[in-house]
C-alpha cells in the first residue's frame, strides 16, 4: 500500500496472520504449503502478479514470494486500496471468530462466512479511519531498535559487576585449592565457589540490578559475555579455570585456527590483574597478555 511503484520480496517463515498466529484451514496441505499459499493470496489481493522462487540457502524455509508487477492500472489504485482495507478487516473478524471458537462458540465452516476475501462492508467510521490508519491495533517496532544484549553497557559498569561477582565467588566459602604443576613446583590456585544466579543477584545492589533489568538477559547475559572470567552452567556461576579448557583441535577449520592465532595476546588477562593468586596458566600458554608489554 506504500505506492503503486512498490515491489516486494518476502521469505515466509513463522506462521502469523495480521493479528496473531495463523490458523490452519486445509488439512490436505502441509502447514508450510498452506501458509505459503496464504501469503501469496495476500499479494494477489493487493494487486500483484505473485511469483514463487526457491532460494539456495541452508534452510527448510527457503521458498520466497516476489511481487514485481501490478495486475491493475494506476488509475484503479483507490479501488484496490478499498479492497485491501476490506480484506484486512475480514482477517481481523476471522481472528476474533477463531478465538470465539476456541472458547466454545459455534464457528461454522471454520469462519462462518466472515473470512471471504472481500469481506463484508466495514462500518463507515472504520472505512474513514482506513484512509490514515491501515491497522489501528498494529504496533510496529521503533525505527531505531535499542541494542539490549548488555553489549552497549558502559565498560566501567561491566568491569565493576565482573569484579564484584568474582570477589563474591572467591569469598563465598573457604578457599577451594586446585593443585597443578608449573615448572616442577606445586602451586595452589583458588577457583572459588559456585553460586546460583539468584544468590549472585541477592548480593548485588539495587541500582546495578535495575540497570541490568533493562537489558535482555540481564545478569546472566552479562556474565556469559564475560567469557574470560566466568562459566555459567545450569543456572550456576563458576570462575573459569583455563587449565581445564580443551586445547584447540587440529581438525579445526583453517580459518578458525587463523582467527584464534590472530586474537592471541590481544587483550589483558583479567586473572593476572585481579585474581589474588594471579593467572592459573603460565604466560606462554595463556591466550591473554600478562602485562601491557605482552599485548599484540
Automatic annotation (TrEMBL):
Alphabetical GO biological process terms: tRNA methylation
User: What reaction is this protein's catalytic activity?
Assistant: uridine(44) in tRNA(Ser) + S-adenosyl-L-methionine = 2'-O-methyluridine(44) in tRNA(Ser) + S-adenosyl-L-homocysteine + H(+)
Transmembrane regions: none
C3H1-type domain: which residues?
263-293
Keyword Ribonucleoprotein assigned to the entry: answer is: no
Q: Which GO terms describe its molecular function?
A: tRNA(Ser) (uridine(44)-2'-O-)-methyltransferase activity; zinc ion binding
This one is known as tRNA (uracil-O(2)-)-methyltransferase
- Please name the source species: Leptocoma aspasia
